[in-house]
Amino acid sequence: MWKESEPQAAVIKEALAKYKTETGVTVTVEWHGRAVLDDVAAAIKAGKPAPDLADGSINTILGAAANGVPVADLSPVYQQPVPGENQNLADVVPDKYIPLLTDSGGAVVMVPYEIASEAIFFDKTKLPQLSSNPPRTWDDFVKTLDAVKAKGQAPLALDPIPGNCAYWVEWTFEREVGPGQFKRTAEERDPTHVDGDSRWDDARLLDGAKKLEALVKGGYFAPGYATEDTSANSTHAKDQQNAWAQGKAAMILGGTWTPSETKRTDGVDSFVFPSMPDLGGIRADNSAGVNFFGFAVPKAGKNAAAAEKFVLYFMNKDRLTAISTEAGNMTPRPDIQAPEVLASVQMALTNRTVFPDQDALMRDDSKWYTTVFQKNAVDFMTGKMTAAQFIGKLKADSGAFWQAAPPTK
């Protein structure tokens, strides 16, 4: 799934070279980029050989079967020892991740070698208090933004491409209603099945939207962000990210790859998205979203056992550590220290309840996510709708989407 020029590719290349030296096994590699499983599907449909081993995100691997690339159940691999260690694979990949790597039939379809999430990144040399005492609630977060604003700096950077706008909305909704609940709302087909009302009428969603509306209207995002051309072919889709990297905005909400992608890691720290205030004695949600990138074994391949041996070899601590030290990202192994800039995210993933990134909506309902949610999120986060209009539009567009969709089985 990587381009050959990417740091993860370099890590895998290094491991393959060592594997050949130690075992005599030569592995032929093709670097396809993110559409690798689409290319595998096309090859299989054309009657061409399938690879013995492939990789991708958990979203693409779980979706591969529908596109003609069924993958093997790797549950037995987790019970095998990691070469060079006195423990099995199941001992080094946390138990709480396994349900998120499992398909609807109970098969574990992936061995992850990299995990990701989202965080808010900042310059700790200018805001050292955020490292020692990060904002834990939304009110604390807004106070922090106000303090930055009072000093004349733009508090937040946002490139209003669909994914980035969706980050803000989905995290706010997650914090308001909790993991799984936003997904149930998005998938609502009968708008009257909850006490006679739609899930979209939940006052907590409107409350979250109003909090975001206050950021948009309050000028917390760097000036000019809402008028950027961030279309698919635009050269401006990362202007604000680059502005943050140059110190022109104090903070940015982005994927955990943001520091390595911008090459801004020195002096940078992060904190996870703040919780909402506790209400009525009910503790606000503070769980951590997680995405996975890793190996899958296509059933159409001819050397599954050989592929599984390399997977286990790569998951050895000494080799996998390079994903952190050389590629600047996190691994699923808690005993491999994340890059310093991601330490807060690793701590959250280790110590908190986890849920599938994007509440599994991009995985399970990608068409709804892109055509209904992301589209409206862009309009909302660029000030084209009020909070009430945004919730109403999501409700109406979702209803129309599901009415036109095939019935569930």
How would you explain this protein's 3D organization?
With 409 residues, this protein is an alpha/beta fold. Helices cover 43% and strands 11% of the residues. It has 19 helices and 8 strands. It has helices at residues 7-23, 36-45, 58-64, 75-78, 89-92, 129-132, 138-150, 162-177, 181-186, 203-217, 239-245, 258-262, 304-314, 317-320, 322-325, 343-351, 361-364, 366-381, 387-404, and strands spanning 54-57, 111-116, 118-123, 154-157, 249-255, 268-271, 288-296, 354-356. The strands form 2 sheets. Strands 1, 2, 7 and 8 form a 4-stranded mixed sheet that branches. The chain starts with 6 loop residues before the first helix and ends in a 5-residue tail after the last helix.
List keywords for this structure.
409 residues, alpha/beta, 4-stranded mixed sheet, 8 strands, 43% helix
> What's the pLDDT, averaged over the residues?
94
Helix-strand string: HHEHHHEEHHEHHHHEHEEHHHHEHHH
Instruction: Please state roughly what percent of the residues sit in beta strands, choosing from under 5%, 5-15%, 15-25%, 25-35%, 35-45% or over 45%.
Output: 5-15%
Shape, principal axes of CA atoms: globular
- Based on CA atoms alone, the radius of gyration comes out at 22 Å
Count of helices?
Answer: 19
Terminal residue distance? 32 Å
Uncertain runs are none
User: What helical percentage do the residues reach?
Assistant: 40-55%
Sheet with most strands: 4 strands, mixed
Q: How many beta-strand segments?
A: 8
What does the secondary structure layout of this molecule look like, with pairings?
Blueprint: H1 7-23, H2 36-45, E1 54-57, H3 58-64, H4 75-78, H5 89-92, E2 111-116, E3 118-123, H6 129-132, H7 138-150, E4 154-157, H8 162-177, H9 181-186, H10 203-217, H11 239-245, E5 249-255, H12 258-262, E6 268-271, E7 288-296, H13 304-314, H14 317-320, H15 322-325, H16 343-351, E8 354-356, H17 361-364, H18 366-381, H19 387-404
Parallel strand pairs: 4-5, 7-8
Antiparallel strand pairs: 1-7, 2-7, 3-5, 3-6
Helix pairs in contact: 8-10, 8-18, 10-19, 18-19
